[in-house]
Amino acid sequence: MATAGEALIDMITEADGRLRPCAGGAVYNLTRALGLQGVGTLYLNPLSRDRFGRQMAEAIHEAGVTLSRTEPVHQPTSLALVSLDAKGKASYSFYREGVADRQVNAAEMSAACAAQPNLSVIATGCLALVAEDSDKYLPWLRVQRAAGKLVVVDANLRPAIVPDMVTYRSSVMAALGEADMIKVSDDDLSTLGFTHPDPLEAAQALLAKTPARWLALTLGAQGAVILNRDGSGWHGAEPVPVTVVDTVGAGDSFLAGMLVALLQRPAMQAARSARELSLDSADIQHILGHAIASASLCVMETGCVPPTQEQVLQRLSAGRPNFRAL
User: Fold this and answer.
1) Number of domains in the chain
2) Rounded to an integer, what distance in angstroms lies between the CA atom of residue 3 and that of residue 207?
3) Number of neighbouring beta carbons within 10 Å of residue 60
4) Which of 104, 131, 155 is a domain's end point?
5) Domain assignment present for 326
């Protein structure tokens, strides 16, 4: 599969006020998590030649990911200042002007994907959805959708980075309008204006506004849901509460686990295009269980430490999430 979006350094505020740099960025985390779980992944954004960029290139190489842009660029690496609340939930401030990972264009990304004859899934989200970069990512998404690729978009909103929420929401909704599969959190739904008190109702309202066939909704400690466009769905949750160190990268690890499990399903392997893909209840439970286990393992660590495939399978063998049909 192929991924496109931000790669940055999370400067995590420690208890004593010191800042600890960790490689991050939602799409970079997703990409590395996919590689660590054995999925052949092409990352389409360039990395910087600075110290942080070299660190990120080494980590992504160790995960088995292929860089589409093999030569580093001279622009600096993006930075994010991360603050954690008492429950380990993260908030972010970003420094992203003139940075390496934004040196992309739709034509180059589309050409890189076209050169991969076995490519079946592409994914983006988070900072790639800001209005200032829509001319880079939206045309690429449209080309991939037209080519029959499964288009996955993770809303993963960051309202703190934008001065104009109306324009931001419009840009995010435009990207979701090209998706076959959407991932959102309950916070994302509220930020997008889907404010029904029941997150499931809000998620269904969002799904109805897009052509997507599936929507994954993460609910923090309450687990997660995968909804089908036909109104069916499944909820999954850990049978025992997880000890949370912090939530950095949890959603990215969840999405990686979901895509890893999706690519394993016979239905995905048999489908000649995203339009032909059909998932039954067994598929959804397998996908949801793998995603939840991946996220749980991540939140038990400091910073984004995505699990390997072996670690996820070990966790699932010790006890699968509880499921219920919706």
Assistant:
1) 2
2) 22
3) 21
4) 104
5) yes
Q: What is the model's pTM?
A: 0.95
The residue assigned the tokens 């910073």 is 303
CB 77 within 8 A of CB 25: no
| 136 found inside a domain | no
Specify the CATH number for the domain of residue 85: 3.40.1190.30
88 has a pLDDT exceeding 70 = no
Structure tokens at 166: 């109306």
What are the pLDDT digits (tens) for 101-110?
999 999 999 9
What is the CATH number for 323?
A: 3.40.1190.20
**Any idea of the CA torsion for 168, 169, 174, 177, to the nearest 10 degrees?**
150
Q: Please write down the HEC assignment for all residues of 18-81.
A: CEEEEEECHHHHHHHHHHHCCCCCEECCCCECCHHHHHHHHHHHHCCCEECCCCCECCCCEEEE
- Asked if residue 320 lies in contact with residue 262, where contact means CB atoms within 8 angstroms, the answer is no
Domain span at residue 284? 213-326
Which two structure tokens, joined as six digits, stand for 253?
A: 């690890």
Q: Is residue 311 part of a domain?
A: yes
- Taking the C-alpha atoms of residue 268 and residue 261, their distance in angstroms, rounded to an integer, is 10
The CA distance from 198 to 179, in Å, is 23
From CA 187, how far away is CA 219, in angstroms rounded?
9
Last residue of a domain, one of 51, 84, 104: 104
pLDDT value at 148 more than 70: yes
- What's the average model confidence in pLDDT over 161-166? 90
